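Give me the fold.
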Amino acid sequence: MEIFVCLDVNQAQVRFLRQIAGNDVIHIAGDCSKVVRPPPEFISCQIALGNPPFPWLKSADKLRWIQLESTGFNEYAPLADLANEPNPILTNLAGFFAEPVAETCLAGILALYRGMHKVVSLKETRTWRGDRLRSCIRTLAGARVVLFGYGAINRRLHELLQPFGCEVAVFRRDWKPVSLDRELGRADIVVCACPETPDTRRAFDRRRLGELMSGALFVNVGRGSLVDEEALADALVQGTIGGALLDVTEREPLPKCSRLWDCNNVILSQHSGGGSVDEIDRKLQVFANNLQRYRQGKALVGQVDFRKGY
């Protein structure tokens, strides 16, 4: 069996991969995102670790399983339409980023509530505002929070919010527009953490953003497609909402022409919210566990269901 790794790894991680491969052949190619043609080693492999470019899959007749290094898999949605038979199993890192992303949400909310984004900006210009800042900052205690999506990220965030005594309204896959609109009208904070599906795409359009109270915070750590970014920029510029934390945007990198760059009440965390110093090591451990299951003929953890969209 041959395993192809399109993931940047250090020498210690290479040794770990070779150890878990055992007698199998392993090809470690590093980041392949900008490589147009699939190398021969990929075409001959049965297992791939990482996110190989989708066009490569058309040439990979022997490929049986792809372990993604991400939760998102939209670029692989056409997989079922390929002529290859059988098509490879696709597993993602569902739940893997829950802790770091939930902590990013909490950090961003507290930063905006406590004015940290303002004092960082003032430090850059050596400007002292002192007491004049005090009337512009808020406390999180007792805030009304809407969690749109209730997967691993928002479940963990719900736990992190408990010491603050927040009033939390949860909207799962079966969310009802009327109920959501009603809660948005009284929410201090809205946190979106769900995949892109027909039901969630542009869920926060101009009309729905208009339901938010003045001063409300909008947090998106799900998918950039969940919100109308032009409408969001209007709301932020006009001050009809209080601020936003955006870990994801519809186009990444965010185009330099986007007005979101100029909004001083926005934190752009640049899709780094799931990061941690041990991220790659933990990803390799997920792969190692699934590789053992694959060899034993067991069901793989994190298998993608294209019909559900996650």
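The chain has nine helices and eleven strands.
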